[in-house]
Design goal:
By secondary structure, the chain is an alpha/beta fold. Helix content is 30%, strand content 24%. It binds zinc ion.
């Protein structure tokens, strides 16, 4: 069984603040260590419970957070940013996708470091349903017929993922958000055990998650933070502007919609918040 792991950082054990996930800050070393911790727990369990091949996509920020020298053999890493499918690059061909150290969508209460792809997205919808990175990435994986079998992060993320992807999804919470940058956190020894149990359930628990599919065509909605960002997004061909900061785009399929969304956010990011 071939497992694909999209590995973010905000949802890792112990991580609660932006400084811990920002490469220009001293606390970043902690974020990297905990991202690796949760990933290793998942990867080792996946091999133990039936995975024959594991492809890990480093999915946070510059996407060079994981040190390949510290990962077990048998794992292949997709490293670096600028990938056409970003957080789900190279998902095609996998039997299951696991989203590790993920976080809740922008605007979620009591969710550690909630956001959607960048701090410039106020709200994102896919076919009229509010989605965060979990939902949008799951839809891209679903486009290639790959179901998401496991999502790990904080309590709010686990609720979001379950509500969207259904009961066949296994979720694993490693912390409970008390605010955007505060949480009740479990120790690594405890979360390693929880993650191992979750992987076993995902691979040997009789779960049959189905690919999460958007429509073809599909409708992507994006609200950015302010109207100046809106002016920048408005330059994208095919974009419909509904207000100063709310847009929609009708995409031929979710992959096209994902690429529009990322292009729109890149434009929004050129303007101040
Ligand atoms: Zn991230």
């Amino acid at each position: 069984m071939k497992i694909y792991v999209s590995c973010d950082m905000e949802g890792a054990t112990g991580v609660v603040r932006w400084e811990q996930v920002s490469a220009d800050k001293a606390d970043y070393a902690f974020g990297c260590a905990m991202q690796r911790h949760d990933l290793l727990a998942v990867v080792e369990a996946a091999f133990e419970f039936g995975a024959t091949e594991i492809l890990v996509n480093d999915s946070h920020a510059r996407m060079i957070n994981l040190d390949v020298r510290q990962l077990p053999k048998g794992v292949t890493v997709v490293s670096g940013a600028g990938k056409p499918l970003s957080m789900v690059e190279a998902v095609e061909g996998a039997d299951r996708a696991f989203f590790v150290a993920y976080h809740a969508m922008a605007g979620t209460a009591r969710a550690v470091l909630d956001h959607t792809m960048s701090g410039d997205a106020f709200e994102v919808t896919l076919d009229g349903i509010a989605v965060g990175e979990t939902g949008f990435n799951a839809a891209v994986a679903g486009h290639f017929g790959v179901p998401v079998g496991l999502v790990t992060g904080d309590e709010a993320l686990c609720r979001e993922a379950r509500a969207l992807l259904g009961d066949e999804l296994v979720v694993c919470s490693v912390k409970e958000g008390l605010g955007r940058q505060a949480a009740r956190v479990l120790t690594p020894e405890v979360t390693a055990q929880k993650l191992r149990t979750a992987v076993r359930e995902a691979l040997q628990g009789g779960k049959t998650p189905r690919p999460f599919r958007a429509g073809s065509p599909c409708q992507v909605g994006l609200t950015v933070l302010n109207s100046a960002q809106g002016d920048a997004v408005d330059n994208l061909p095919g974009t419909v502007r509904h207000s100063g900061r709310t847009f929609s785009f009708r995409a031929g399929d979710v992959v096209e919609g994902y690429r529009w969304f990322r292009a729109a956010l890149a434009l929004a990011g050129t303007v101040g918040r």
